[in-house]
Design goal:
about 170 residues; about 70% helix; single chain; mainly alpha; about 0% strand; Bromodomain-like; 7 helices
């Protein structure tokens, strides 16, 4: 088997830097441009942070094949969940105006006052805040771009899984 063009450690590090860049951009949008995140945006941030932490752990650990598989599966799973939240928000953004849920409680209030299952159910329903498109680039809303980013993270996780094959073991 030939040696890969790029090491898995560099892939882990590049993925971590991408997730850190996304969180940095989110903070610029929030605090620099005054765009308040909706509840689904906050959940997407959690998944970006979770993916980034798995990638950072992989970069620091620099595991053998079984560890790359484990980290790769973690990245794919977390990116898939983040993509589901982003896809849900994109779907909500494309609903006709009368079908979008009204304003709801903010995420902090829900977490403090409702059981976790009720909070998740309310988050998944979305609010009118989640339907608002306050920024777009090349025709995609922020949620649309996050869906693209999560797909990229999932592809990175698959690449890590493929790199996990050891020479001579197929």
């Amino acid at each position: 088997m030939t040696k890969p063009l790029i090491s898995s450690r560099l892939l882990f590090l590049a993925g971590f830097l991408a997730s850190a860049g996304l969180i940095g951009a989110a903070l610029v949008f929030q605090y620099g441009m005054g765009l308040e995140p909706c509840p689904l945006c906050i959940v997407q941030r959690w998944f970006v942070i979770a993916v980034g932490l798995v990638l950072l752990a992989g970069a620091l650990h620099n595991p053998r094949a079984w560890g790359r598989r484990l980290y790769g599966l973690g990245v794919v799973a977390l990116a898939g969940l983040g993509a589901a939240v982003a896809a849900r928000q994109v779907w909500i953004q494309h609903l006709p105006p009368g079908q979008v849920a009204g304003c709801g409680a903010d995420l902090d209030y829900m977490l403090q006052n409702f059981p976790l299952l009720k909070t998740v159910t309310l988050l998944w329903a979305g609010t009118s805040d989640c339907a608002a498109v306050t920024w777009s680039f090349l025709g995609l809303s922020m949620a649309g771009w996050m869906l693209v980013c999560f797909a990229g993270f999932a592809a990175l996780g698959v690449a890590l899984l493929l790199l996990a094959r050891e020479p001579g073991k197929g």
